[in-house]
């Protein structure tokens, strides 16, 4: 059983996750949490570096499994296991970032770490 600090250490070292878009596009990106525990970042990205990030305080919810419109679309995410999928709901407009981990364990690490950060159980510096 991993503790929240174990999860955060893992997230800071980075994971290659699949970022799934509504247009059926899928991008392999390296996702990390910054050392201050204040934002999630990904690379490479065609966005400017300050846009390829989500501040932790903007995250409203972390959903486990295929529980957004994009991930429910079989054409988009049908080949991925439900246990590997999770979504980050963020911003004032409740935007979604849909992600697929390489394993159910990796998805649990990210969901656990993000949930602890957004609940305030662990504070960023």
Summarize it.
Residues 1-119 form the PH domain. This protein is α+β, with helices and mostly antiparallel strands and 125 residues long.
Salient structural properties:
single chain; PH-like_dom_sf; PI-PLC_fam; phosphatidylinositol-4,5-bisphosphate phospholipase C activity; PH domain-containing protein; PH-domain like; alpha+beta; seven-stranded antiparallel β-sheet; PH_domain; globular; 4 helices; 125 residues; 27% helix
Protein described:
With about 120 residues, this protein is α+β, with helices and mostly antiparallel strands. The protein has a single domain, classed as PH-domain like (Roll), CATH 2.30.29.30. About 25% of the residues lie in helices and about 30% in strands. A seven-stranded antiparallel β-sheet has the order 4-3-2-1-7-6-5. A hairpin with a 4-residue loop joins strand 6 and strand 7. Helix 1 crosses helix 4.
pLDDT < 50 runs, ≥5 residues? none
In N-to-C order, the SSE pattern is: HEEEEEHHEEH
Global structural class: alpha+beta
Count the E strands.
7
The domain tally reads 1
Shape: globular
Report the mean per-residue pLDDT as an integer.
90
- What is the name of the CATH class? Mainly Beta
CATH T-level fold name? PH-domain like
Number of helices: 4
Overall radius of gyration: 13 Å
Report the portion of residues in β strands: 25-35%
Helix content: 25-40%
Protein name: PH domain-containing protein
Domain PH: 1-119
Organism: Ridgeia piscesae (Tubeworm)
InterPro entries: PH-like_dom_sf, PH_domain, PI-PLC_fam
């Amino acid at each position: 059983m991993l503790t929240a600090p174990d999860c955060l250490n893992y997230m800071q070292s980075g994971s290659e996750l699949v970022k799934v878009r509504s247009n059926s596009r899928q991008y392999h990106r390296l996702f990390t949490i910054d050392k201050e525990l204040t934002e999630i970042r990904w690379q490479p990205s065609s966005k400017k570096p300050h846009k390829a990030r989500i501040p932790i305080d903007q995250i409203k919810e972390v959903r486990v499994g295929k529980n957004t419109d994009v991930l429910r679309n079989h054409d988009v995410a049908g080949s991925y296991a439900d246990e590997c999928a999770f979504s980050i709901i963020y911003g004032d407009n409740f935007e979604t970032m849909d992600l697929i981990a390489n394993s159910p364990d990796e998805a649990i690490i990210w969901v656990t770490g993000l949930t602890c950060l957004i609940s305030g159980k662990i504070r960023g510096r």
